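In this section we walk through a basic example: taking a raw amino acid sequence and producing a predicted 3D structure, encoded as discrete structure tokens. The instruction is simple. Fold the sequence below.
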Amino acid sequence: MLPDTVDDTLPLITTEPIDMGYAGQKTISSIETDASIVDEPEAGVDYTYDNNVWASSVFKPINNQGVSALAVSGNAFRFSLRFAEIYETTRISYIKARFKMTDLRGLRGVYAPPTNFRGQGA
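The resulting token sequence is shown next.
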């Protein structure tokens, strides 16, 4: 039996915590997905610096190319997709987070080829 009132909670998908295989601080710049047949898609990120206390970013709209621009830093993340409505034919194949390492203290050794190998410099 269906309830008499409509649930006001929006459909939400959230990943398990991810640290990208590196314990240092990282900055998320965008989230990409191929979610289709949904209404008003949005992306958000939960982040932590110590794996004990989590905070949440604001949800940002996902554009028609499937990208949501965010700027969130932390050591580990949980990525979320939220929708106003999902349907029987809704499909999601992937969630891709673009990030950069902002804390390089944990890395030792060679980082990248010298600039002249990348077509820069003399």
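Looking at the output, two observations stand out. The first strand starts at residue 12 and ends at 14. Residues 52 and 76 are 11 Å apart (CA to CA). In the next section we compare this with other chains.
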